[in-house]
Amino acid sequence: MPIIIYFSHKDENMVHGEMQKISKGNTAVVADKIAEQLNIEAVELAPLKKYPESYQEMVDIAKKEKMEQARPGYCLAIPDLSDYNEIIIGYPNWWGTYPMIIASFLEDYDLSGKTLYPFCTHEGSALGSSMDDLRKSCPGALIEQGLAIHGSKVEMAKRAVTHWITRLI
User: Where would one find coiled-coil regions in this protein (predicted)?
Assistant: First the structure.
């Protein structure tokens, strides 16, 4: 049985080119849709240090973390992944790939022999280089086809999620 592990950012976000306050991050919305369809658990990768609410501040921090190859701390409610052979991993696309908090997670867990099903939310850059980056970070894992959902369309993504799930899992 797979598990969903995701990182998501709420608060201020860019939606259709305008700033909007969102109470639930886009990636969390998609994670919940996947969890509901598969009847499995979705576990949030929560940052130890809360990211800023301001979209522009968040963009600046994400850029800095990527340039410095930072490894932000996080909390994961399920520390032992040995019972899971399939991991559905979700993240927003920040600066062309997954956020550095995902890089922290990937370095902390040996995912060799596991199958990863990546999904991301974005505002125009789709999966970016995250698929290649996942292959480099997890050389012993099988990385399946990813799903990219436009952030401003997550509420209408049930059909895309269903199609992705039925093709892969």
Answer: none
- 75 contacts 48 by C-beta, under 8 angstroms: yes
> What is the torsional sign of CA 82, 83, 86, 91?
negative
Task: Report pLDDT digits (tens) over 6-47.
Answer: 999 999 887 777 788 988 999 999 999 999 999 999 999 999
d(CA 17, CA 63): 19
Determine the pLDDT at residue 134.
98
CATH no. for 3-168: 3.40.50.360
- The alpha carbon torsion through 24, 30, 33, 37 (nearest 10 deg) reads -150
The residue ranges of every structural domain in the chain are 3-168
Whole-angstrom distance, CA of residue 44 vs CA of residue 28: 8
The secondary structure element, H or E, covering residue 130 is helix 130-137
- Rounded to whole angstroms, the Cα distance separating 120 from 134 reads 12
